[in-house]
Amino acid sequence: MNTIDNLNDKIKEFLSLFDGDTSAAQLALSSYQQQLENSDRAIRARQTRPIEDEVICLRGVSKRYELGKQPIEALRNVTLSISKGEFVAITGASGSGKSTLLQIIGCLDKPTSGRVEVESKETTNLSDNALSELRQETIGFIFQSFYLQPFLRLSDNLAVPAMFTDKKKQEIDISVTELLKRVGLSERSRHFPRELSGGQIQRAAIARALVNKPRIILADEPTGNLDSGNSKSVIELFRKIRDTLGTTIVVVTHDGSIARQADRIIELKDGTIV
Ligand SMILES: Nc1ncnc2c1ncn2[C@@H]1O[C@H](COP(=O)(O)OP(=O)(O)OP(=O)(O)O)[C@@H](O)[C@H]1O
Ligand SMILES: [Mg+2]
Fold it and tell me: Do 8 and 88 fall within a single domain?
């Protein structure tokens, strides 16, 4: 069968869906076309986001660890830009430099060379005090291990990061109650971490990272020890936070199915972006 015949058959098949009603078919086609154009536009908008939306910018970042005689090049000449409200996944094999990259973005570590800007502020030559202020005001961290305090009830665990700010106790209590509700743990506020499941602890750690209303969330393997159902709900929670608060989210994961749910995947191999 030639291509024209093939096409005619397709058109007949399509029209039969509308019982030969060509105007209904026409309407369906133009609505489909509109949807395609809209999604095209959304993709283009994302690609051409204006530069003032850039919240994280790395230029030629390298990190070398000197261990005895054998230096380790954990990052080599990494350049990247992340926009406000983007949900980015960083993937790569074990040892490829994911955690190192996240720590440098989060100003917990300094690069050996290169520039790092967070909200247009060059961070590599800030003093330790200025850095901890920037971290406290801007960034929420979720680490590979969660370090919930075992002897504190859940609500007190969530309040800890806010205690180092000048917020009043009443204000902190309101934020904690709101956050517990947001992550579906309102009923658990008086419980200790040992009384919670792995997934609940993970959600609590996310809530704790949000208590100071950070504009950037950095999470290292936040679904590390979770089954696929709990991993999915953690990722959904990130998306919801991003959609409602416009938070920029950077998640390190070696799980491809988690990474694919992000807006963009940055893959590292031997310390470079591939
Ligand atoms: N403090 C350190 N001192 C020396 N070498 C380090 C240090 N931290 C990391 N490295 C090395 O740097 C490289 C990158 O480590 P990194 O922790 O960033 O990898 P990763 O991609 O997060 O791995 P994983 O998936 O196993 O967590 C590794 O070779 C690691 O051994
Ligand atoms: Mg790591």
Answer: no
Per the structure, the count of domains in the chain is 2
**Is there a single domain that holds both residue 162 and residue 139?**
yes
Ligand 1: centre distance to CA 90 (Å): 14
Give the pLDDT confidence score for residue 263 in this predicted structure. 92
Are 74 and 198 part of one and the same domain? yes
Could you read off the pLDDT of 101-148 as tens digits, one per residue? 999 999 999 999 999 999 999 999 899 999 988 888 899 988 766 678
| 13 vs 250: CA distance, rounded Å | 45
Q: Note whether 10 and 123 are same-domain residues.
A: no
| Residue that the structure tokens 């003032």 belong to | 52
- Which of 64, 78, 91, 100 gets mutated to test ligand 1 (max ligand atoms within 8 A of its CB)? 100
Residue burial 163-194, b: 16+ Cβ < 10 Å; e: rest? eeeebeeeebeebbeebbebbebeebbeebbe
**Ligand 1 atom closest to the CA of 252, numbered from 1:** 22
Q: Are residues 208 and 263 in the same domain?
A: yes
Q: Are residues 81 and 31 in the same domain?
A: no
Closest residue by CA, ligand 1 atom 19? 95
Q: What domain range is 10 assigned to?
A: 3-47
End-of-domain residue from the set 30, 47, 64:
47
How confident is the model at residue 155, as a pLDDT? Answer: 95
pLDDT of 24: 75
Residues 74 and 224: their CA atoms lie apart, in Å, by 21
* pLDDT of 3 above 80: no
